[in-house]
Every structure is written in C-alpha cells, then in structure tokens.
Design a protein that fits this description.
Low-confidence stretches: none
Number of domains: 3
Strand content: 15-25%
Largest sheet: 7 strands, mixed
Bound molecules: adenosine-5'-triphosphate, magnesium ion
Structural class: alpha/beta
Mean pLDDT: 95
CATH topology of the largest domain: Rossmann fold
Number of helices: 13
Radius of gyration: 31 Å
Number of strands: 27
Oligomer: single chain
CATH superfamily of the largest domain: HUPs
Strand order of the largest sheet: 12-25-26-27-23-24-13
CATH architecture of the largest domain: 3-Layer(aba) Sandwich
CATH class of the largest domain: Alpha Beta
Helix content: 10-25%
Length: about 575
C-alpha cells in the first residue's frame, strides 16, 4: 500500500473547530468516520470524504485520533457484500487504514430498537397507522403547517404493544410506521414527526431474516455515531437541515456520547455524474463495461485508468473543505494526474497510427544500431535504456504531410526532422496506393547527428517519435475520453444518458510499441512520448502475451481548446 503524502493539510474551518475543541479540553480524543452505504462502488466524491476524514485522524500524531470505516448497512434491499469488499479495497488503495476500527451499523439493530422503546416510554414516539400517502399529505409544506395524525395520541402501552408486534412480523409492509413525536408545525420539514422505523419484510446481508422493521437514516445515523464515540461527524451540506433532528435524537436517547455534526460542501465535477443510482444505471444498461470502466470516476475506474492515488489525494487537498457549493472543473483533476505522472512515469516510444519509413541509405537490410535514451528527462535517477534502430521504422502518420504548410515543421518531401534520441532524417520520396493513401515514405539519415545540431544547410526544427519496425511489438491501445459531452449532464433536458460522448472510447488494435514494453507488468504507467500517459489494463493485459494499454490522460488538455 502506498503511503499517503505528508503534505501539510490546509487548515479548513472544520480543522479549526477541532483544534479549538482540543485546546479548550472539550475532547482529548478525535474520532471521525467514513460511513458509506454498501449499495454501489465508491466514486471521486467519496474520495474527498475519505481523504478528509482519514486525513484529520492522521493530523494528530500525539493523541488518540482515529477514523472509523463504518458500513451504513441499515437498508436491506440494496446492499451486497460485493460492495463491502470493493469499498474496503478502494479505501486501502487510496492509502488509508482503518486499523481495528471497522464497523457495521447492522450490528447496532438491538440498540436502535432499545432507543426507540425508550422514546416511546418518554412519550416521544408513536406508531402511526396512516398510509404512506396520508403521512405525506398531512406533513404540509414549507408554507403550510402539518396536520397531526389521528394516531398521534396513542398511549405508551398501545405504542409499545404495536411496535413489538411490528417487530414480530404481524403487519404488512407500509401498514404502519414508528414516528418521533416532535411537532407538526416546525418550519423545518425534517422535524415534523419524522419516521423512525418502517416495516420491510426483506432479507438483510448481515442479519438475515431476524428483522422486519428497519430504522431510517436520520434516526440511525446519530445513534451509530454516538455508540462509536465519534467526536466530529462530518457530512455534506444536504444534511444541514437534518442537524436539529440529529441533535434531538442525541438529546433524547440513552446514548454514551455527544457527537457533533458539521457539514461541508460536496464535490461536484464537470463532465461527470456522481450519484450511485446513476452510476448503477450506466453499468446495468451497458453504457460502460462495469463499475471499473476507466471512463467512470469510480475509485476502481480511476485505478484501472492509471490515476495514481497520490494524485487523487492532491486533487482532494487542492479542492479543499468549504461550505460553498460549486463545481470543480475536470481539467483540475487531469492536471493533478499529469503533474504526478510527469515526475514518475518512465518514457517509452509508441506509434498509434503507424506509417512505414524506409531509410534508403542505411548500411544494409540487417544492420541494426542500439541507441541509449533517457527513461525520464524530468528525473535523472530514472536512468536510460537502449532502443534499436534499423532500416525500417514506424512513425505517426500525421508526422508526415505530402504538402506541408509553412508552419509544419515535421516531415514532408525534402524536409528534415530528428528521430527522438537518434539521427536527423530527410524525406526523399513516398509511395501511394491506388486509393491515394500514403503507404510508406523514403528518407535518408544524416550520419553523425545523434545528439548534435543539424549540419549546415539542413533545417531541422522538430523531433518525432518512432519505433524500429523489425523489433516493434503490437499492442491494443484504448483511448479514453470524457464519458459525457456536456459540462453538467445532470441538468440535461433529455436526462444524463442523452449526452453521452460517443467518442469516449476508441480502440487501436495494432499500435506499434518499442520492444522493451513487451515486459510491462500489471500496474505500470508510462509516458508514450508526445502521445500521452498510458497504463497496462488490469483486466485484459497479459505481460509478454497480449498487451493492452489504457490512455490515462493526454499530454495536453484538448478540451480547453474546444471550449
Ligand atoms: P451518492 O449520492 O453518490 O449515492 P451517498 O452520499 O448516498 O452518495 P454514501 O455511501 O451515503 O453515498 O456516502 C458515504 C459518505 O461519502 C457520506 O459521508 C457522504 O456525505 C460522502 N459523500 C458522498 N458523495 C460525496 C461528494 N460528492 N462529496 C463529498 N462527500 C461525499
Ligand atoms: Mg446515501
């Protein structure tokens, strides 16, 4: 597991609150939590929450500071252990460790039930036999107060009896609920006698058929936090209006601690959708190949795409923690990826759209030279490697033009360019097929020009990448682009599926790669010079047998131009 960077965290308003709580002696322990519901794979929004919550725990070395990984698995219908396993793997891959602190909210079902009974005994909860429809209409709206349920004044005994029978399975789904008795006139809709428990005859992944009543999030979450002695329960802004209810349950239930909820703004990213429900549709309807499709900003998709976890952490750090809702430009994430890979990815040469070059003045058909080239000019410690050069090469088709305009500095009839790390070559002719396609070009190399300036009379202003044809290897290269063609797919009139980018994946079945890439392992990332950053595909690449590379990110932001 890679170690998180020790970059000093920005002091955001929540870190200030925590520092102050320690200073005034309100706490001597800091406990945060990351509480995913296991109903899908994690995405980059969750990464922000993970980096934040685990990051705070890491801030404090001298005191007991921890971050719990808690599965909020109180909803029996949508949860699967596949999701539990993927979430654990994703948190670890991001560089964080929950240690002993792994919890499942479903292990607290008895405690929730006890708290509900306690509230009934205090006259603070009642069983409502209205239909869900009636409950909804009687809640009123922001301008109209709600109407009390006709069942609101049931006696404690009757409520205890009905609640026990709800639990025992005597009643059908939807026939009754347990509600908190707070008031129907509050201006905060969340406080109008919110539902605490509903009847669901469903099998739960952990508790099986033990329960047929399940707690609502707003009731369960504060109790989970309190049971685990969470000091600061950090959540996104949508929950700001739920905080009075959070505090009400903490105040009125027999809990062992007083956690404090603090909200921050969620991460929104342009050109993507983040809700798990929408991601699930993309997966289930086959718009992508799975949760780990490299075009998705799921953590598993980013891993398969070759995004380094350190770059994701830097991105979250850069976005920061505030209370202002905003949308972050995808280009910022991509800039972090490039920045990280520029320093650490070794350079290789690969030609994606190959055009044959024949060097007509080469000493012989079989003559081959070995050139020493740097693995990473940005990092001398990366060393050098040898690449072979023979009579025939592959270059990129668009590095040659039959009738080049003045500003085109690469190859054309009579023009010269340098082979990266090698000789300068001059184009002397080309061949065309019947259909007018250039099939190969002819060049002469100029001896003694490796690492040296062009001789007098030769104009050479560009260095192009190339691959020796006799030793090159074939690979499948997958070019990924943004999955959506508009900045805000959620706002699209025809729905987010109506603006999928049709060019988000293009497959090049036979790219030509330099021979050293035959041994590329699972998980390696390279810069293909002048082309972009590429990693081996974690599913389909088999070292030395079937080479499959994913484009992690292009070298430049091509979207900035389009906009
Ligand atoms: P989604 O809305 O994408 O389905 P969710 O909020 O329902 O996500 P949970 O599993 O409940 O998903 O989330 C776990 C934690 O991650 C919560 O604390 C939640 O606030 C946080 N989280 C989810 N999405 C984001 C986001 N976009 N930015 C920051 N934090 C997020
Ligand atoms: Mg949720």
């Amino acid at each position: 597991m890679s170690k998180p960077s020790n970059k000093k965290e920005k002091v955001d308003f929540i870190r200030e609150i925590i520092a102050n709580d320690l200073e005034i002696g309100k706490h001597d322990t800091i406990i945060t939590r990351f509480p995913p519901e296991p109903n899908g794979y994690l995405h980059i929004g969750h990464a922000k929450s993970i980096c934040f919550n685990f990051g705070i725990a890491r801030d404090y070395a001298g005191i007991d500071a921890r971050c719990h990984l808690r599965f909020d698995d109180t909803n029996p219908e949508k949860e699967e252990s596949e999701y539990v396993n993927s979430i654990k793997a994703d948190v670890q891959w991001l560089g964080f460790d929950w240690g002993e602190d792994l919890y499942f909210a479903s292990n607290y079902f008895d405690f929730f039930y006890d708290c509900a009974q306690h509230l009934i005994n205090q006259g603070l909860a009642y069983v409502d036999s209205q239909s869900p429809e009636e409950i909804r209409t009687h809640r009123g709206n922001v301008t109209t107060p709600g109407t009390p349920s006709p069942f609101r004044d049931r006696s404690v005994e009757e409520n205890l009896d009905l609640f026990a029978r709800m639990k025992a399975g005597e009643f059908e789904d939807g026939s009754m609920v347990l509600r908190a008795k707070i008031g129907m006139t509050s201006s905060n809709m969340n406080m109008r006698d919110p539902v605490m428990y509903r009847i669901m005859h469903a099998t739960h992944h952990n508790t099986g058929d033990d329960w047929c009543v399940y707690p609502m999030y707003d009731f369960a979450h504060p109790l989970e936090d309190a049971l685990e002695h969470i000091t600061h329960s950090l959540c996104t802004l949508e929950f700001e209006n739920h905080r009075p209810l959070y505090d009400w349950f903490i105040k009125n239930c027999p809990v062992p601690a007083q956690p404090r909820q603090i909200e921050f703004s969620r991460l929104n990213l342009s050109y993507t959708v983040m809700s798990k429900r929408k991601l699930l549709r993309l997966v289930q309807e086959g718009h992508v190949s799975g949760w780990d499709d490299p075009r998705l900003l799921t953590i598993s998709g980013m891993r398969r795409r070759g995004y380094p976890p350190s770059a994701i952490r830097s991105f979250c750090h850069r976005v920061g923690i505030t209370k202002v809702n905003s949308t972050t430009d995808m280009a910022i994430l991509e800039a972090e990826i490039r920045n990280e890979l520029n320093q650490h990815a070794e350079r290789r040469m690969a030609v994606l759209d190959p055009l044959k070059v024949v060097i007509t003045n080469w000493p012989s058909d079989t003559h081959s030279e070995r050139l020493e080239v740097p693995n990473n000019p940005a990092n001398h410690e990366a060393g050098t490697r040898e690449v072979s050069l023979g009579k025939e090469l592959w270059i990129e088709r668009d590095d040659f033009m039959e009738e080049p305009p003045n500003k085109f500095f690469r190859l054309g009839p009579g023009r010269s360019a340098r082979l990266r790390g090698g000789y300068i070559i001059t184009c002397t002719g080309f061949e065309k097929s019947d259909t007018g396609e250039i099939t190969e070009i002819h060049c002469e190399f100029i001896p003694d020009t490796i690492g040296k300036d062009a001789p007098d009379g030769v104009r050479c202003r560009a260095a192009i990448h190339w691959v020796d044809a006799s030793t090159s290897i074939d690979a499948e290269v997958r070019l990924y682009d943004r999955l959506f063609s508009v900045e805000n797919p959620d706002a699209e009139e025809g729905g987010f599926l109506s603006c999928l980018n049709n060019d988000s994946l293009s497959v090049i079945p036979h790219a030509k790669l330099e021979a050293s890439l035959a041994s590329a392992d699972q998980g390696s990332v390279f810069q293909f010079e002048r082309v972009g950053y590429f990693c081996t595909d974690s599913v389909d690449h088999i070292t030395g047998e079937k080479l499959v590379f994913n484009r992690t990110v292009a070298l430049k932001d091509s979207w900035a131009k389009k906009k």
